[in-house]
Amino acid sequence: MDRFRRLFTIALLAGTAAGLILFVVHHVAIVPLIDAAEQLEEAAAHAEAAAGHVHEESGWQPEPGFQRIGLTAVTTVLTSIGFASVLLAAMSFGRAAIDGRRGLLWGLAGFTCFALAPALGLAPKPPGAAVGDLDLRQYWWLATVLATAGGLWLAAGRGHAWWLRAAGVAVMVVPHLAGTPPPEGTDAVPPAMLRDFARLSLAASLIFWVSLGGFCGALWRRMPPGGPKMEPPG
Prior knowledge:
Blueprint: H1 2-50, H2 66-93, H3 100-121, H4 134-156, H5 162-178, H6 191-222
């Protein structure tokens, strides 16, 4: 029970801190691109509507301003806490001591699995960009994350034989050889915006994962398994 309480507390603290960092970076660097892309997307939709093409109405969207910013902050922090739980669970199964330095390495591994490897096939795209079928993209993303995580464990595991390391590299390559769902339609945003969005999104993800891993490792080192001890009264 103490171990679970320790994991939960560290995930809550580290996830909240890293999530707030990601929210600030996202709000400052990426939100302006999203706003500009949405304007281009809306203009393209109006042009197509004027030409007689009918677009399906999208679902509920938060109102611009406080509602949108607040919901983004909450969802970012909650997602970060979830990722912190996954990262801590993986770290706790290892045999090496957990500290800030090892947390940073685990954070880089998380960035590779959840951001870098999927971006090699499906780069982050702003609103108005042509994308493939949603279900197929989600399946491919999940397969890539699992293959990269398993491949890294095989390739970088301490004491693994050379053929296991080679198998790990092969596993990581499989989803990319299978290919990604082709985009449908045309881009309503210029290529330069697509490149900037992908680049800034990956940079934000790197900052997030390094922060998350560092916080997890440092808090694990500082927080004893049994939590703080209370002196009995008297």
